[in-house]
Amino acid sequence: MKGYRHNAALTGGGLYDAGAWVPRGGEEIGVGWNIFTRVFAAPGGVIYGVMPNGNLKWYWHLAYRTGGGLYEAGAWDPRGGKVVGTGWNGFTQLAAGKNRVIAVHRTRVPLNLAARGVENTFCILHSVS
């Protein structure tokens, strides 16, 4: 996995605007992400991965602001890989915001988020058939 930080995400700064991107962008920040069926990022360097069995794993790239790479000491939170939910393999689309994951499920079946290890920090936006 390569890391890129768009400093101008909230202002719309483009490719050729000075300071729009962290200079160290494109540095390798992780390996082995191919074990996940889905990977998506949240604000603040948080990255989630969905395992084929439905487990949702949490990682925190602490060096996201500087573009710190895979082998930089302290670049990743040591608690990374923690299972924070189960049953996430039924979702077709996943996106994260601050303290929530927005998910689209492939069925219209009512979803029990508590059974997925999810408390009040995650929500379902929409379900599709």
What is shown here, in short?
It contains no helices and nine strands.
Main attributes of the structure:
mainly beta; single chain; disordered C terminus; 129 residues; globular; four-stranded antiparallel sheet; three-stranded mixed sheet
List low-confidence stretches.
Answer: 118-129
How much strand? Answer: 25-35%
Mean pLDDT: 77
In whole angstroms, how far apart are the ends?
A: 32 Å
**What gross morphology would you assign?**
globular
- The structural class is mainly beta
* Number of strand segments: 9
Spatial extent as radius of gyration: 16 Å
- Biggest β-sheet description: 4 strands, antiparallel
Domain unit count: 1
Q: Helix and strand string, N-terminal first? A: EEEEEEEEE
Strand order of the largest sheet: 3-4-5-6
What percent of the residues sit in helical stretches (DSSP H or I)? under 10%
- Please work out how many helical segments DSSP would assign: 0
Protein name: Tachylectin
Organism: Deinococcus hopiensis KR-140
Pfam family, one: Tachylectin
InterPro entries: Tachylectin2, Tachylectin2_sf
